[in-house]
Design goal:
By secondary structure, this protein is an alpha+beta fold. The protein has a single domain, classed as 60s Ribosomal Protein L30, Chain: A (2-Layer Sandwich), CATH 3.30.1330.70. Strands 1-4-2-3 form a four-stranded mixed sheet. Helix 2 links the parallel strand 2 and strand 3. It is globular, with a radius of gyration of 14 Å. The mean pLDDT is 91.
Length: 111
């Protein structure tokens, strides 16, 4: 199980007010966070075929938009793929939305 803080809205594809360079720094940070968290979790994955990835969103409050939460996951998926040494095209994600919990989290189960 890979646990990370709830990803910021600045990772959303439609995030306003971010220059390309400003957003690239946030993207790089979250990719690295996910890589480190995945290495710590040590998930096992099959050598070939789909890798099921269940993503559980626990937002910190009710201000978010569930439709956009999965958009925030791209750098996280990239970091997980980096740690596993796989192409993220193999990921078969499912998304699960939970009631808000402070301080918020995203939990990824890889199987």
């Amino acid at each position: 199980m890979i646990e990370l803080p709830f990803p910021p809205s600045s990772l959303s594809g439609h995030a306003k007010g971010n220059s390309h360079w400003g957003k690239s720094a946030v993207t790089k940070e979250w990719r690295e966070r996910a890589r480190v968290a995945t290495n710590r979790a040590e998930p096992c994955v099959p050598l070939s075929g789909d890798i099921r990835v269940a993503v559980h969103f626990y937002p910190p409050d009710r201000r978010g938009d569930r439709i956009n939460f999965p958009n925030r996951m791209k750098p996280i998926f990239d970091g997980i793929a980096d740690a596993l040494g796989v192409n993220d095209a193999r990921f078969l994600p499912s998304y699960h939305f939970h009631q808000p919990e402070k301080p918020g989290a995203v939990i990824v189960e890889v199987s």
